[in-house]
Amino acid sequence: xxxxxxxxxxxxxxxxxxxxxxxxxxxxxxxxxxxxxxxxxxxxxxxxxxxxxxxxxxxxxxxxxxxxxxxxxxxxxxxxxxxxxxxxxxxxxxxxxxxxxxxxxxxxxxxxxxxxxxxxxxxxxxxxxxxxxxxxxxxxxxxxxxxxxxxxxxxxxxxxxxxxxxxxxxxxxxxxxxxxxxxxxxxxxxxxxxxxxxxxxxxxxxxxxxxxxxxxxxxxxxxxxxxxxxxxxxxxxxxxxxxxxxxxxxxxxxxxxxxxxxxxxxxxxxxxxxxxxxxxxxxxxxxxxxxxxxxxxxxxxxxxxxxxxxxxxxxxxxxxxxxxxxxxxxxxxxxxxxxxxxxxxxxxxxxxxxxxxxxxxxxxxxxxxxxxxxxxxxxxxxxxxxxxxxxxxxxxxxxxxxxxxxxxxxxxxxxxxxxxxxxxxxxxxxxxxxxxxxxxxxxxxxxxxxxxxxxxxxxxxxxxxxxxxxxxxxxxxxxxxxxxxxxxxxxxxxxxxxxxxxxxxxxxxxxxxxxxxxxxxxxxxxxxxxxxxxxxxxx
Amino acid sequence: xxxxxxxxxxxxxxxxxxxxxxxxxxxxxxxxxxxxxxxxxxxxxxxxxxxxxxxxxxxxxxxxxxxxxxxxxxxxxxxxxxxxxxxxxxxxxxxxxxxxxxxxxxxxxxxxxxxxxxxxxxxxxxxxxxxxxxxxxxxxxxxxxxxxxxxxxxxxxxxxxxxxxxxxxxxxxxxxxxxxxxxxxxxxxxxxxxxxxxxxxxxxxxxxxxxxxxxxxxxxxxxxxxxxxxxxxxxxxxxxxxxxxxxxxxxxxxxxxxxxxxxxxxxxxxxxxxxxxxxxxxxxxxxxxxxxxxxxxxxxxxxxxxxxxxxxxxxxxxxxxxx
Lengths: 539, 323
What we know:
The structure holds two protein chains of two kinds.
Chain A lengths: L1 H4 L9 H5 L4 H30 L9 H37 L7 H23 L13 H4 L4 H28 L12 H33 L12 H35 L6 H14 L15 H28 L9 H24 L1 H7 L3 H31 L5 H27 L14 H27 L19 H4 L35
Chain B lengths: L1 H7 L8 H32 L18 H30 L6 E8 L2 E5 L5 E3 L1 E5 L3 E8 L4 E5 L4 E5 L5 E6 L4 E7 L12 E6 L1 H11 L8 H11 L18 H6 L4 E3 L5 E3 L2 H9 L22 H19 L1
Parallel strand pairs in B: 1-5, 4-10
Antiparallel strand pairs in B: 1-2, 2-3, 5-8, 6-7, 6-9, 9-10, 11-12
Helix pairs in contact in B: 2-3, 5-8
């Protein structure tokens, strides 16, 4: 039993043992805290924007300041938090555990990805210190080739983080193919693993395109090579094609892991076999594939050919079908189960509500004629926040609450966590629902000041954003507060009665080598109809 | 439905606006039905099968598929999105096929204002005058970065590119003055890059066009300046009553004539004819303290006589205010 008390958090000791660690769990934790730091920063920037937008004029900041703030908010949230955080943090911590493996396939490569992420983060911090960047996170040319702000450091940062994404994706694919324990066949994998597999495929195929685009943009600024700048014979719309060829699939890099998390939380907290396992697994892959063929729907007003408009609109709707199948499957999973309203489950239910709105409003934007009115308005802002925040971040918070006792060996205050989840839900809807109405009425995005006719809805949105921000902050603090002294759980704790390998075959927090001996697979990940795993929750 | 439309949308002014709003309602009501199924289904199952205090943990049902239900998941959304897709394309074709009898007007975006060139000569800034019940074909381009020409009441929008022309059209059915916004981010002055579309009765429009091309040579300088003040869109940023808008009021500048003005870099200059001339032609060189440098240059848009006229008009304001 002495072996049992040795866990990855406390053994080995010393700062160097963390900085040079090859342990996927420690690397995952470093991603987690790095990601949370940028989440906090991006959140502050968001609240700054809402403060400025609470009233029509330039009340708190000048146009230039606002442009910097919104650009950094977008770039930090997308490139430094959402894209790296879920695969980098939860994916790293959980993937080998779920497969019964000792580590990922290439532990050194894994550490290298983390340091590439850190280097990219340093470039971002430099950008902020040097005075910011004002092009929008999309870096559309020719504005980005002519802007005097720090476009090069920021795009360089994104270029470097891209490599971190590619290497992590590569590592995960190799791990999923080669590191499963005997008997753990593809259809016995937890769905989170399927989601990471789909994500990794997109990461290694799409990310090189953004890397090349960023390099071309940097070369354009430094050497004037004339790829994008019309003054030099280039084409700004070409940039948009390049950018969205990555950035649309990147939406699935961001949302697929969230699908994976929800596919774990719902069966565990409903104590019920998941509905339509194969449907969910294959819809992940089909979304990853179709996601490559729809980038043109970001460009319905750019003047691309009528034929392209029709084709992109048509294919866009095919993303909707597998996504709908997933939503219905998650809901039906609860049928004849035993549903507990724990914090992870509340987040998962919030996810279903919010992501459904996010998905359905995508149907409005896929209809070309309607998109022409809604394009570049607050309707789009609301739509992608419902997908990215209401979907991905809410699922991420759910996953964090679900696996917190596993990875940290402590339990947070569940009542506070539930209240915060409600606060996030209300605050989120209060903030972003009015933005659909703003968009319908024609309020364009990226405005520092606006016409007074939009003041009421903006004001309302700003008010609720404070509640949203506060709820997320308290939710995270509640998690961190559980790390205080003398709050350790019994290493055998499995508070939700989950039956994937990370819960049934190792301690909480896990052993430095994951499992004391190679686990033997006794049942599938969701066999609540065959085996009873009692929840155990002891201090 | 009318009241809902009034609440949700700007006015329906173009001929295709109602069709687009109806497409919205089709998706909207289908979505509400699907959303209600999701939310009520979720709440019903979660509450009905909730784990109650005192319940034993037991083996649960192995049910994980139902062929009829799953076919419905595919077929119902497939039908709905097919209708949406076809409707979206049909309406889109109406929006891009320009009628033959359209009046052609050239619209140019430039950081941060709009220029409108009319077919029989004449140019306006930030004021787009069109006749009602007459198709208008708009040829769009940009002089610098990307802009996007957005008229919410027409339900239409199109990007302005520096290297290529884009086309849009509309036919306004109701006279009035409506908003134009720039919808593609273009830098510091993006949120100020608004304009107005003025829809007039055709007869009124004819008269307006005739006056637009008329000779300005024979009117006194300060009267010409007063005309240019609105025609060249100075009024969108500078008031005549002393209140500050995006830029300082003309009245304030007029009252400070001959005095020092302080700039945001700490330097200052005396307000005189040369100062006014350079702040119209090179607005970025000296930015008045407390304001943002968002004014575009008017180089090439005003001739010498017109510059003189604006200066004369500005000077005259102080005298008028004393009366």
